[in-house]
């Protein structure tokens, strides 16, 4: 049961308290949008869920499928089936995409007690994922994210998502900097991977547009390190129309 449950999470980085008691659950099969103004702690929450080494959890728990992963290292979280697409993906010069994808795929297979992926199966799987994400063939022999445009990086992440088929995915501003076609490709990729599975998705975004394509079941608003309200897609429309002023007036946590 791959529910991702965050309770009373307090996180600090370099003595700065960023998350101040976050409660959030991403249920099995749920598309959950996380919104909030710049600097409210969305990326910090995503990084904390993945176990970023620069963040300290000072209070609270993170559970995944009932298992407490608060202290687990990033590798272990990934092997349990958590996937994260970063707001600012890093380049890894010297590692080709093919090699990277195979390494990741085999690590996941090993975690499930399966043998390494046969070359033929790997090729077919990658081919299908490339078609889904509209990634040109010549990409796979290039180095990971090295010299890739912003949109190309995001499409590559969607490719990884399609290959990994994680049990829960965190997408941090996957839509930022995408042109309309790339946005469609990414949204279609995420929907295809998610449909008919029990994968939970936490999608972090500032904008309505992607949430028209990847329809959230639930929307939560993070404000000054706390979830101050949640609801359905109507919250997205209200934010789009009114911004965050009402959140500050009506819901701002007492400091
Ligand atoms: N390693 C760090 N050291 C010190 N402060 C940090 C660190 N990481 C994040 N912060 C601060 O924590 C706050 C929240 O940052 P975070 O990146 O989580 O915001 P965000 O909600 O993702 O914003 P955006 O919408 O701009 O992406 C910011 O004020 C940021 O400067
Ligand atoms: Mg962010």
Descriptive notes:
The strands form three sheets. The protein has a six-stranded mixed β-sheet, sandwiched between helices. Strands 2-1-4-5 form a four-stranded antiparallel β-sheet, with helices on one face. Strands 7-8 form a two-stranded antiparallel ribbon. The mean pLDDT is 90. The chain has 255 residues and is an alpha/beta fold. It has a domain at 81-177 and 187-196: P-loop containing nucleotide triphosphate hydrolases (Rossmann fold). Strand 4 (56-64) and strand 5 form a beta hairpin. It has nine helices and twelve strands. It has helices at residues 42-50, 74-79, 97-111, 119-133, 150-164, 180-194, 208-213, 234-242, 245-251, and strands at residues 4-13, 16-26, 31-35, 56-64, 67-68, 82-85, 92-96, 143-144, 168-172, 200-204, 218-223, 226-231. Helix 4 packs across helix 5 (150-164). Magnesium ion is lined by residues 42-43, 87, 172.
């Amino acid at each position: 049961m791959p529910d991702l449950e965050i309770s009373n999470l307090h996180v600090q980085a370099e003595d700065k308290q960023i998350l101040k008691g976050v409660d959030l659950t991403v249920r099995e099969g749920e598309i959950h949008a996380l919104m909030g103004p710049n600097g409210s702690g969305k990326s910090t929450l995503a990084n904390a869920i993945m176990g970023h080494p620069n963040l300290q959890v000072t209070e609270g728990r993170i559970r995944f499928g009932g298992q407490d992963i608060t202290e687990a290292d990033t590798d272990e979280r990934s092997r349990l089936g958590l996937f994260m697409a970063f707001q600012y993906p890093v380049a890894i010069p010297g590692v080709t995409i093919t090699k990277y994808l195979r390494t990741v795929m085999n690590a996941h297979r090993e975690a499930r007690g399966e043998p390494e992926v046969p070359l033929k199966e790997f090729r077919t799987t990658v081919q299908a994922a490339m078609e889904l994400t509209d990634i040109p063939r010549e990409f796979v022999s290039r180095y990971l994210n090295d010299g890739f445009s912003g949109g190309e990086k995001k499409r590559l992440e969607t490719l990884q998502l399609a290959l990994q088929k994680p049990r829960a995915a965190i997408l941090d501003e996957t839509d930022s900097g995408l042109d309309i076609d790339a946005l469609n490709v990414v949204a279609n990729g995420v929907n295809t991977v998610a449909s008919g599975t029990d994968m939970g998705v936490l999608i972090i975004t500032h904008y309505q547009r992607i949430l028209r394509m990847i329809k959230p079941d639930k929307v939560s608003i993070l404000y000054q390190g706390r979830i101050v309200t949640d609801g359905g897609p109507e919250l997205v429309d209200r934010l789009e129309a009114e911004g965050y002023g009402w959140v500050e007036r009506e819901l701002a946590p007492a400091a």
